[in-house]
Specification:
single chain, 2 domains, about 55% helix
């Protein structure tokens, strides 16, 4: 089964949740200024949903959603910058990520031990799991060997065509990747 856009009703619900969670945007001002937050959500989300669905069908994203503004954060550290991207673009990314994660879980494409990008699992949970596996034998007086590897540049040196070919075996559309 190919990963598809989540049903419109669920997408609408997810968009409302994510839009309401960005309290630093003008969306929050609209929520607070209206007596009917549900109506405000409909006014904001329905046009976004139409754009999402059209982007999905055309397999293209609006050019403005790809633009990134870098803003200096601190005078003490002039090299430190914040990356500001489009709020609708972030919403669409989360909707698509949710659909991909659901597909990967439902079809057992990725092992349950995978961490980092799967929701509910992080690098920290991976570290804790690893620590438990190493210390458990040591607690019983058995030796445990650890060979640390540094994959920090692994993705940069990986042939992306090979990666895309392998990912296509998961039945995820190539335009997702």
């Amino acid at each position: 089964m190919v990963v598809r856009m989540i049903s419109s009703q669920l997408t609408l619900k997810l968009c409302r949740i994510w839009c309401s969670s960005w309290n630093s945007t003008n969306l929050w001002a609209l929520w607070n200024s209206t007596k009917n937050p549900q109506r405000a959500a409909d006014v904001i989300v329905k046009p976004l949903l139409m754009i999402f669905e059209q982007s999905w069908e055309l397999k293209r994203v609006l050019a403005d959603w790809k633009l990134v503004n870098f803003v200096p954060v601190s005078k003490k550290n002039p090299g430190l910058q914040a990356c500001l991207t489009s709020v609708p673009g972030k919403v669409m990314e989360k909707v698509i990520l949710g659909g991909i994660e659901e597909h990967l879980k439902d079809n057992a494409v990725i092992d349950h031990s995978q961490h980092s990008f799967m929701s509910g699992k992080s690098c920290l949970s991976n570290l804790i799991s690893f620590y438990d596996k190493v210390t458990h034998p040591a607690d019983r007086g058995k030796p445990a060997d650890v060979i640390p590897l540094d994959f920090s540049k692994a993705f940069d040196t990986l042939c992306h065509r090979i990666l895309l070919d392998q990912m296509s075996s998961t039945q995820v559309d190539e335009h997702f990747m």
